[in-house]
Structure formats: structure tokens, C-alpha cells
What we know:
The structure holds 2 protein chains of 2 kinds. Chain A is an alpha/beta fold. Chain A is 36% helix and 28% strand. Chain B is globular, with a radius of gyration of 20 Å.
Amino acid sequence: MVEELLSLKDVRAGYGRTEILNGVSFAVSKGERLAVIGRNGVGKTTLLATIMGLTRLHGGAITHAGARIDALPTHRRAERGLGLVPQTRDIFKSLTVEENIVAGLRGEGTLEQAYALFPRLKERRRNRGGQLSGGEQQMLAIARALAGRPSLLLLDEPLEGLAPVICDMLMDVFRRLAADGRTTVVLVEQHVEMAIDFADRVIILDAGQIVYEGLPADIRSDGSILSRFVGVALEPT
Amino acid sequence: MSLIPRDRRLRDLAILLGMALVLTAAFYAFPDNLAFATRVIIMMIFVLSLDFVLGVAGVSTLGHSALFGAGAYAAGLCAAHGWNEPLLGVVAGAAAAAFVALLSGLFLMRTRGLTLLMLTIAVTEVLGELANKFSDITGGADGLDIVMGPILGVFKFDFRGQVGYVYAACMLLLVFAFLRILIASPFGLAARGIKESPARMRAIGAPVYWRLVAIYTLGGALAGIAGALSAQSTSLVSPAVFDFQLSANALIMLILGGAGRLYGALFGTLVFMSVHEVAASVDPFNWLFIIGALLLAVVYVAPAGLLSLPDLVKRQLRFSR
């Protein structure tokens, strides 16, 4: 039986009194790769922020590894093994690359693991975060999140604004992470094609609710799903 | 884990050695001004502690004199009750100020911005009033006259202030080295991360509130050392140690030199106190005008402090080529 790592039950959340998520329920199994897609402004980023405890929860329950985490502060969720790579590449610009990674180190995480995943960062380890290119900043944000050895990695549009060659390299890293079975990945992504290629399962959000949940193969075979809920079509293979 | 690369460690060691040389040179160059030089050194320790709290960790405070005062009174009370070994007084001063910082930090660190600024001032006012009120213990408005014993039972404070100067200089070197190591440690890294983005630090698992309380407590201990040294070098503790002016001056010194880099605290203090000394002797009533003008010029030309001037000039030269 596949072990459930994360589950959301009827989650309603938002910022202040504004409710963005209106009753979201889903579960993620250990080692699974879940893609969350949808149009702009449908609540994808809010969903990840809510799992991380960065929004106001109005109702519902969030469970991680069998324990309720919705009342825990953000840092306790991170301690439990949740790692977030935010959309804005939230690195510490005044700290060096090495300091950024060390700031996120926890448990068995080491600098060398981060450098093995992103050799480019080792070359630039003495540079400040603000001196890096967009792609390097994204690598750093991911390396810092991984330094905490998360069991659940939440990736919020990690490919946004990056060159295709960097996107391919990052997707390859995500695949390798998911392949070792220790890291479960929830990927929010605008590059629908790449997200579907990557995922074991896909969720489509619209207006703060899940409007579709299924397998990548089903989405590929039924072109109307994407055009109806996301407004895009997949490239013919 | 130390994050200071070897070349930077060597540079720090060289700077520490350089500081020791400058302090030694000042000892021989200004034998008749050692009391003033000691005041400068003590102020440097105080501004370093403020730099750690405000410049490194981003905790806004206008009440740092509360911690200076707590350290001064603790050392003073120790001496007044017969425990007049100076190092013991410094330890007592650091412990008392750390305790006050911990106690006040538990609620101060839940606030931020203007509220935090106002509350830090309020804490200082409360402590100043307590020092006035409990005159049986504190000597009230007259303060406490204290007599210090010899340091380690050997080195007696002398009239010319030589022992006091060397004692304060050693403390400055210790505090500076300690802060350099601390800032390069994961704890210091967390402090710098919190200054840049508390939310980001939370997201990577740092308990931001407790870290801030710890930072404030540590900064308090260092301010307490400065307070204790001040009490010991002047043999007097009065409620003036809680003056708002002291906190404000320390902040000006830090802005002058440049916050967040430790060296700025040293340089800013030296410039402020030297200008103050000279300007006040030329015009005792309008010296603040000079300080104000200097601060305006620095904030306008080099907002990151006087220490950023060489970089600014270099950039300007490169740009003009």
C-alpha cells in the first residue's frame, strides 16, 4: 500500500479575510510527483503557501506524515520536512552562495550535496546572491530548500523567466530528486508541457478549487481538458 | 561551522593586530588624554553591540542605553557591596544587561517598526525611573560612588588612566573578535538572514522570534560590558546612564561609520567623539551643529556610512573614465 505523505481536506485559506482557496482536498503519496497547473491567479501559489503556513487558514485540515500540521508555525513545518522554493527566488541577496545554503542546512544536509546537484554554485560560492544570474538564483533557491533534506519539496513556478537550457537542466534535477524515492515533489508550473511530462498525477486549479484531477496520459489523450480549464493546448507529439 | 574563508580569517587577524597596534600607539601618543581615549573605547564597545542588534539583525531600537545602564548599575552595585574586582563587575554587568534584554526582549521582539522603537524607549524610561525611585539601593539621582579594586588583584587603576585604558582596550579587542566569529557562525548567518527577510528565514525552518530574543540578549550582554566598564572607569553610576541621548548618540555613531559591518561602529564612534571633543572645546554651546552637519553630509553623500566612501570614490572614478 502506498503511504500517504500529505493530505488536504476541504482547505479554505487566503490573505486576511480574503479567501483564495475554496475547499481544496487532495492527497500526495510518498515519492509521488504531483503537478498543479491552472491559469494565472487561480490560487496555485496560495496553495503552496498554505501548505507551508504562510497564509491564513480559514478552515479545513492539512496532514503531513499522519500528523495535523495546520496549527504549526512555518518554521516547525520546515523542521518536519517541508521545503518551499518560492516563485520569487527568495534568496538572501546580501549573503554569499555558500552562506545561503548553510542557512538552510539541517539534519544530514551538506554543502557538498548541494554542489553535487549544482556544480555551477560551487564555482560561485563566494559571490553574493544578488550578483547571480536568474538561473543561478533559481539553482540557489532550490539548493537552499534541499539543504534542509525535505521529504516534501514544494516548487512554485521554478522555471519562470529562465532560458530553455536552464529549464531542462532544472527539470532533470527534479526528476533525479524524485527518482531516489526520498523526496516527494509538488510542482506548480505555467509550462504545462513540462509539468505534465514530469508528473505522475496532475491537478488543475480554477478559482481556488480543484476542477480536474487525473493522470498525464488522460490529459494527453483528451485535449479538451487543458483547453477548457487552462486555456492551452499541448503540442502534438 | 565557520564560514569565514581562510584569506578573510587572515585579514581579520591582521585587522585585529592592526587595532592592537593603533590602540598601543594611541596609548603612547596621547598620554595626557587617556581618560578621553578610554571613553571612546567604551563607546566603541557599546556601538558594536548596537551594530550587532540593529546593523546585523535589523532590530530597530532607540533604547539601547537601557542595557548599558543595567550593566553599569550591576557593576556599580557589585563594587558598592565589596565585590570590587573589575572583571567580576564586567561579568555581573553583562549578566544583568543580558537578563534585562531577555526579559524585555520576550515582548519587544513580538513587535516591529515604530511600535518597537517606542517600546525600547519606554523600557529605558522605566529603568531610569526605577534607578531614581529605589534610592536606598541605587543612590537615587546622586548615583553610586564606587571604588574599584585592582584588576585580577594586581593592576590598580591609576590617576593617569593607564590601567583603565589598557583594560578597556583589551575588552574592545575581545568583544570585536567575539562578534566577528559570531557573525560568521550559523547563528550570525541567521541574524543576517532575519534582517533581510524574516519570512524567508521562517520558510527554511528558523524560529525567527526566538532567534531575535537570543540576538537581543547577546547584544544586551555586550552593551552591559560597556556599561560596566563605564562605571568602573568613572567610579560613578547615576541615572544618566539611561539617558535617551546616549542611545541616540550611539545610533548616530553607527550611521556615521556604516551599520552592519562592525568596522563602521569603530570608525563612526571615533569620528563622532573626536569631532565632539574638538567642536565642544571650540564652541561648547553649538557643537551639535557640527555633528548635525556632518551627519547630513554623510547620509547624503554616503548613505552606507563613512566606510563606504572609498568604494564610492572608486566607482565614481571608474564611471568618469
